[in-house]
Amino acid sequence: MTSPYLVNCSTLFTELPVLQRPAAARAAGFDAIEFWWPFPQPLPAAAEVDAFVDAVGAAGVQLVGLNLFAGDMPGGDRGVVSWPGREQEFSENLELAVDIGRGLGIRVFNALYGNRIDGVPPAEQDELAQENLALAAKAAAQIGATILVEPLSGAARYPLTLAVHVRDVLDRLIAAGVENVGMLADLYHLAVNGEDLARAIEQHRALIAHVQIADAPGRGAPGTGDLPLRQWIADLEGGGYDGFIGLEYLPVPGVDTFAWLPPQERGVPSGAGGEGIA
């Protein structure tokens, strides 16, 4: 069975306003999408939230995944989960995100861990992260969703760069009785960080709850670099993964960004992948 693809509307269709991107994804043949947190602040006005929800609904696509508020991403922030002093902000954003998810059927929420903060011991940040992730998982469980933890590249202060780093976080949560957590395996981030992907997939497949792809070098569409993405996806599927494959790559101006993917492979095949994230 082939895992269905979905479009990350925070990296693709960026030439369009946010509210037009779900319809653009549908016009390109996709049934499902994901977004980073689509607002500049953790608690946007109700009218802004309603407009976003309405845009997704009107487009006829499923919003499978949503990032929680991650701070000032353009300024270098990579999450507030482990950031002391932002606990209330995290909690309030989480409540709103789950409310959005309740209406749109979101299955996974990506909680970026957060950079290391000067003057705060790493152990203190990790303890806070465990508390916040457990809180997030409890809230997400209300709608049958899973909280994701992701390794990243290109962020020097972000402590989770390899699959084993994420596994350590998840193992502690699971040992404490938190069940609805998993790894977001972004194959691009892991590859450019030097991960042995074939080995990582084999070792950590039971924890992989969502997958994203981009090629390297360049973080472009599959085929623009030299990563064996098709092989890694086949390895995941061979081990039982039947969730979505998120297309989180960067477009090239003037180039058909989906030319590599035949139209018949873009939607959710009947009976495939649409019932849940592995």
Describe what this molecule looks like in 3D:
The protein has 278 residues and is α/β, with parallel strands linked by helices. It has one domain: TIM Barrel (Alpha-Beta Barrel). It has eight helices and eight strands. The chain has an eight-stranded parallel beta barrel with strand order 1-2-3-4-5-6-7-8, surrounded by four helices. α5 links the parallel β5 and β6. α1 (21-27) runs parallel beside α2 (46-59) and α3 runs parallel beside α4 (122-141). The longest helix is centred in the middle third of the chain and has 20 residues, at 122-141. The two termini are 13 Å apart. Residues 271-278 have low confidence and may be disordered.
List keywords for this structure.
alpha/beta; TIM Barrel; 35% helix; disordered C terminus; single chain; 8 strands
